[in-house]
Amino acid sequence: MSRALVIKVTVGEDGSERCNQAFTVAAAAVASGVEVSLWLTGESTWFAVPGRAETFSLPHAAPLADLLAGVLAGGRVTVCTQCAARREITEADLIDGIRIAGAPTFVEEITQDGVQALVY
After folding, report:
1. Residue 113's Cα: distance from chain center in Å?
2. Is the dihedral of CA 45, 69, 23, 105 positive or negative?
3. Residue 3 has what pLDDT?
4. d(CA 37, CA 57)
5. DSSP code of 94?
6. Mean pLDDT score across all residues of the chain
7. C-alpha dihedral (84, 94, 9, 69), degrees to nearest 10
8. 1-5, 36-40, 109-113: which range is least confident on average?
9. Separation between Cα atoms, residue 48 and residue 45, nearest integer Å
10. What is the CATH number of the domain that holds 55?
């Protein structure tokens, strides 16, 4: 059985510790060889836009831009369709390698055998 992890982060700078924890867990899982799908929803959606992760700062935490790069290097990052639309973010606005998808795709990912899901 393969190991897979779907992580949904629902906060950005408005919940900086939870946000950073989600990115940290996702990057650590990728580094450990786990198949990772990181979903950015709510205010975390902004971190899919170039330069935005670099502005995030949390004392004693790894830089969010580095964590995001680690996830992109070996995992998948998705922005919620509705969250992107509410912020007028399009595919053209995103960092290369990040996609926009909706609830049906999320449900498909989390209902596969061997998948664990976490929400932050």
Report:
1. 21
2. positive
3. 87
4. 23
5. S
6. 96
7. 180
8. 1-5
9. 6
10. 3.40.1260.10
Count other C-beta atoms under 10 Å from residue 27's C-beta. 24
Cα 119 versus chain centre, distance: 11
Residue 109 CB contacts under 8 Å (≥ 6 apart), including other chains: 6, 37, 115
Say which residue the tokens 């995001």 belong to. 68
Taking the C-alpha atoms of residue 81 and residue 73, their distance in angstroms, rounded to an integer, is: 22
Quote the tokens at residue 10: 């629902």
Q: Which residue has the tokens 């926009």?
A: 100
**Residues 55-92: tens digit of each pLDDT:** 999 999 999 999 999 999 999 999 999 999 999 999 99
Instruction: Specify the number of domains making up the chain.
Output: 1
* Cα–Cα dist 26/68, whole Å: 9
Domain with 53, as residue range(s), is 4-119
CB-based contacts of 111, cutoff 8 Å, min separation 6: none
